[in-house]
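Summary for the steering committee. The consortium agreed at its last meeting that each partner would contribute one worked example illustrating the joint modelling workflow. Our contribution is presented below. We chose a case with several input lines so that the handling of multiple components could be demonstrated. No manual editing was applied between input and output; the record is shown as generated.
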Amino acid sequence: MKDAFINRKYVITSLIILATLGLLIRLFIIQVVKNSYRLSADNNVLRYVTQYPARGLIYDRNGKLIVYNQAAYDIMVVPAQTARMDTTGFCELLGISPELFRKQLHLAITYSRRAPSIFLKQVSNETYARFQEKMFMYPGFYVQPRTLRKYSRPVASHVLGYVSEVDDGVIKKNPYYKPGDYIGKSGVEESYEKELRGRRGVKIYLVDVFSRIKGSYAGGKMDTLAIQGTDIVSGLDLDLQEYGERLMKNKRGSIVAIEPKTGEVITLVSTPNYDPALLVGRVRSDNYAILSADTLKPLFNRALMAYYPPGSTFKPINGLIALQEGVITPTTLFNCSNGYLFIGCHAHRSPLKLSDAIAISCNAYFSQAYRRVLENPKYNTLSDAYDKWKEYLNEFSFGLKIGTDMVNELPGFIPARTYFDKYYGEHGWKATTILSMGIGQGEILVTPLQMANMTSAIANRGYYYTPHIIKSIGNGGSANPQFTEKHRIGVDSLNFEEIIKGMDAAVNGESDNTAGIAALKEIVVCGKTGTAQNPHGKNHSVFIAFAPKDNPKIAIIVVVENAGFGATYAAPIARLMIEKYLTGQISNKLLEQNMLDLNLMH
Amino acid sequence: MARSTNIINRIDKTCIVLFLLLVFMGWINIYAAVYNEEHSSLLDLSQRYGKQFLWILASVVLAVFIVIIDNRFYFFFSWFIYGACMLLLVLVLIVGTQINGARSWFELGGFSLQPSELAKFGTALALASYLNNKHQDLTRMSVFLPASAIIVFPAFLTILQPDTGSSIVYFSMFIVLFREGMSPYIFISGLLSIVLFFLTLLTNNLYLTFSLIAIAAFLLWLFTRKWKLVFLASAIYIVILSLMYLLDHYVIKAIGNELVVFISLVLAGVVYALYIYNKRAISALIIYLFLIGSIIFVNTVDYSFNNLLPAHQKDRVNILLGLRSDPHGTGYNVNQSIISIGSGGFLGKGYLQGTQTKFKFVPKQSSDFIFCTIGEEWGFLGSCAVIGIYLFLLLRLIKLAERQRSDFSRVYGYSVVAILFTHIFLNIGMAVGLVPVIGIPLPFLSYGGSSLWGFTILLFIFLRLDASRTEYLV
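What follows is the complete predicted structure of the assembly.
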């Protein structure tokens, strides 16, 4: 009976051998043929831990620290390592709600059970200290140090910009960035992002499947250290910046002050503004939403983006062009009978020469001078003359972006001839049609930065350096070679002297001054008031000035929106700024107090 | 004593050497799997390798003890041992400790015991005893059914724990029944149903059914060599199928395509039956019944898989078949295991150099997934060596089984082969991603006292029987 089945041992033997063969083939495939598993194994066991660099510091022109870093701590979680724990105590410790706890943990689990995720971003020092003591009670949680921005004073938010976490768009566009990185947004933080960000390092650890660090890989030989961001020095004067912001409190407007010799921006104020600390850390996105929704638009950088008609502060430029074009001389006289054609003027002596016209701010004078510029027989047509005039303006960078080191700069608006062709028909416009541009009204729109640059060019008698915030990077020299390049204006410096004579008289003149309030005892301030008509309400009060007259150290513009005459508000503020910058103190405390207390925001 | 010495001399030395080789390899690989510089002594009893050393010592003592006992003890007490094992399997369901969701452990103090590891040799003894000396004819149901019951009963008890892996091992003993004369059809059906099982899960039922019908038609031609007959049978089926389809499509509208195909086949069977009855065409009958059986099987599997199988088992099968991918969830173990083994390459990373192993990427590294350590640190060569040793042992055991004089010893020997083979194949197959994750240990290598002792007893009882194969049992 059993012999009948003896051959079945071969069947069983073959079955066993076949199965064994199957195992061997499979082993051969995964061990010898495919080598992708080896790569998987490397990723498995090595954890690349990013070492985040601290951003570079930002100093003011006197070496005072403006922006530095504070330590912040991200609470990380590895869901697979968590165990039963006192959730209530944990939430109290971190000051979070149980709902947030569940939500964050769920998010982390959805991302990965075994890889670390950020559980709570940027907790404070105090929370970190408390958490550190009790961390052992909460397995699976640990702390990753980061750095956040800190500001020595709550000022210059528009200049500095802010820092936020990179979004998907940035990551897609720029391969340097990885999720969790910080990036500068707006202001200096954005334009000097490359210098400030430093370089990420990486530490390679051996980790086991529970993400527990087992030691350094290859004794740390493959690690790269994080390189701290480069420190940068700005041309800002922190004290003056703060003073400017105090003066502009409760007013809408802007101050831009430039050192004419270098183009360095000494002060750049735009109000309403905000405390830069509001846009740091965990509160950033909430605060940003609040600031965005604010009807006062505190995020809007007026110094670079607000368009104003320059008003009478534009008269020096038109005077310069008329001189240069030879249509007037310093002694040319124009009559003013309370205005010229449809352009009105205030009562003053008549006729006037150029410097007097600037000091008195005569509309009739500059309307007539402008008309001569446009009807200059040197040019065949009005349009050609207009183009020449526009060319001069472009040399001052009106109608163009200056190319400063701040983002979001706007070009302003100087209409091209085609603009009028379109509006009035090709030969439908005459000099008188656009005469109001001669006194800085009409279609012209400029930004405070452009006006400050113009003032700087006047102070320099014919050239300017591109205004810029940052004067040097690290120990090296200028941030950008363009900033040391002299931009010459095609106007003789002698012609500038005539204009400056007028601006001197406007402030320091015996009787005809329109801006006597800006005069200082020891220092010769040259200035020009402006009262920019504004369709939206009361006129804007504008004042441009530089000082001292010889070897100028500061060129400044002050714009106070809807405040009325330039002499009333903008001029005194400019005077206080100049005095503060040049002497370090204020002689007229009453004026200072009045300006500080002034509230135009109700 | 003279007799004992004599017996020890007659024990098969090859198997002893292989046994010692395997337990030694197990020990050093467990050391590698849980290697920790703070506890670098191989004998540190706080670590698994230290404990395994104790289990090995104990199992050697156990082996000596088994060999000293008279061979007739195992024969006479086989039913008693089987009964005791079954009792333990029942008891563990009631008072056992639940570990990893299965109630399969007795815990007494710090010591734990897994009765299903011991019940295997008990079952083998009972089966051997039942099939002994009566010239049992396994083609007769009166013999086959009780023999099956001996196997299925402990399998049923372990599946209640639930420990699917161990219960599958019991079913492997049908290999023994095959050797002893069970109908090859049952054996082939068994193998075929395993193939069909996976095909069912991998493919569309309807396509599978049509493929089965096509295979049946081919088989019919193969056996009868009559084109006309095959053509006629197919034509009859197609006509009935078309009618049924139209009927369902326009009148009943509720049967569904799969059932239409099946009902048509049954109706066609009535016509076929006439032919079969007239011509006494046994082969046609068998083919037809096979076809019907297969289709029923396929649909049952499909239904049970989707509706009856516990979710985690379903996941494991789905992941193995590539129907679902989940490298960090259920598939994690397998994925990590394949990565470990694959990263070993041809020569391996060297002893104690396995990064995957060392840093605990593979769960149950020292027990169920011990093969990962071997694959990673010893490479393809080492893996081949281990598998080679196992193959050598299995073939050696078949050889020993075939030289037995008594049915009892032979059946027992084949049971040992079947159990060891299933463990080895399923365990390594699982580690390399060839079979679903089934938690069963690798014989002699995996960490664990219960499994090591279970396999030691299993093997050495047979070696003891073989040593006195010249003596009669009764």
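DSSP finds 21 helices and 20 strands in chain A. Chain A has two domains: 48-79+87-196+204-234, 238-292+299-597.
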